[in-house]
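Hey,

Quick one before I head out. I ran the complex with S-adenosylmethionine overnight. Inputs first:
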Amino acid sequence: MRALTRKSLDLQNHWEQIYKNRSHAQVSWHQTHPTTSLNWILEHTEPSQPIIDVGSGVSVLMDNLIEAGYSNLSAVELSKSAVIATQKRLGSNVPLPKFYVQNILDFETNQRFDLWHDRAVFHFLTVESEQKNYIKKLNMCLAKGGYFLLATFAPEGPSSCSSLDVMRYDEMALSTLLSDDFRLIKTSHEDHITPNGKMQKFNYFLLQKISLPLNMKAIY
Ligand SMILES: C[S@@+](CC[C@H](N)C(=O)[O-])C[C@H]1O[C@@H](n2cnc3c(N)ncnc32)[C@H](O)[C@@H]1O
């Protein structure tokens, strides 16, 4: 595992403070049921397939997938406190996910995943070079035909979260970032109600990695 860069360390401290100082059920992105993510994963994958959750936080998505019989799960998360809290909650009687306490931009693995899930993480990347780096990692780690399930703030959603600026995406904004290596399968809009009762507009995207032979790509 590579050492964290200065920027990753600052970002890690930022998220550490949030998870140490706030009740996990009170963070604005808290969901009791990650319904859209879970339904789409169950619809498009089998329990034996490798799945990764990027910026897993303290989400119960892993719990729900384990309950559904998923046994090849991984998660990348900057905050050690969030990972420890998730591991404690899961206990030891289940096929535990592999957790990597890391910045996704520094993540390296030989494993190939059939689905890459990201709810409210990619939208924190506001610098073009970081967005490109993320997409490069995604392309490297996702198997051919694999799915990219992304949830971001929608254009009418908040412009910041946890004191950090965010990007907001609709289909057009996302497709200009992703190459023609991905085709959009479906989208969904969600009005997320925060624990304080505020409404935040989210967009969900399910994309599939297609792999055309190089000579075909030239035609498109
Ligand atoms: C808004 S929270 C969303 C958490 C979770 N996905 C959910 O839906 O409940 C963003 C999470 O991403 C993590 N995070 C932020 N930037 C990251 C990065 N570059 N690499 C890995 N994790 C990151 C934060 O620590 C935090 O747990």
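The longest strand covers residues 142-153.

Talk tomorrow,
K.
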